[in-house]
Amino acid sequence: MSFFDKIFGGKQEETESKSFWNLIESEKDLEEAIKKSHSGKVAIFKHSTSCFISKTVLRNFEKEIAEAEETGATFYFLDLLAHRDISNKIAEDFGIRHESPQLIVIENGNEINNASHQDITLSQITL
């Protein structure tokens, strides 16, 4: 691991070690997340692995999740650089502007809330 990767984080994100994340790497994964929203809230975190702000927001959000007793949501993670086409599909299908980082909360197949940058908090899921 290079010096800069140690400071800013490399391409391999810590999300792999976080057991609450489900990865969205295909349209099928997105369809499964939307289907899951019919039995409970789904939160999709759209993250740019090359952006320091996105990494900071992600770490803060993960800390909130880890400290929460129960969230009542299923969490999905989308790497924007690897899967920009899926991010674009989310924006188009739900009629929301693409941002990064971005949290989109889905319930019963519909977007019920979304936030970006420092507005991303666990409270966005419970609103």
End-to-end separation in angstroms reads 40 Å
Mean of residue pLDDT?
88
Percentage of residues in DSSP E strands? 15-25%
Largest sheet: 5 strands, mixed
Decide which structural class fits the backbone. alpha/beta
- pLDDT below 50 for ≥5 consecutive residues: which ranges? 1-7, 11-16
What is the CATH architecture term?
3-Layer(aba) Sandwich
Model description:
It holds the Pfam family BrxC. This is Bacillithiol system redox-active protein YtxJ. The structure is a single chain. The chain is α/β, with parallel strands linked by helices and 127 residues long. The protein has one domain (20-126): Glutaredoxin. The protein has helices at residues 3-8, 27-36, 52-67, 84-94, 123-126, and strands at 21-23, 41-47, 73-79, 102-107, 110-116. A hairpin with a 2-residue loop joins strand 4 (102-107) and strand 5 (110-116). Residues 1-7 and 11-16 have low confidence and may be disordered.
The gist of it:
The protein is of the alpha/beta class.
Outline the secondary-structure elements.
Elements lengths: L2 H6 L12 E3 L3 H10 L4 E7 L4 H16 L5 E7 L4 H11 L7 E6 L2 E7 L6 H4 L1
Parallel strand pairs: 1-3, 2-3
Antiparallel strand pairs: 2-4, 4-5
From the structure above, extract its key features.
alpha/beta; Glutaredoxin; five-stranded mixed sheet; 5 strands; globular; disordered N terminus; BrxC; Bacillithiol system redox-active protein YtxJ; Thioredoxin-like_sf
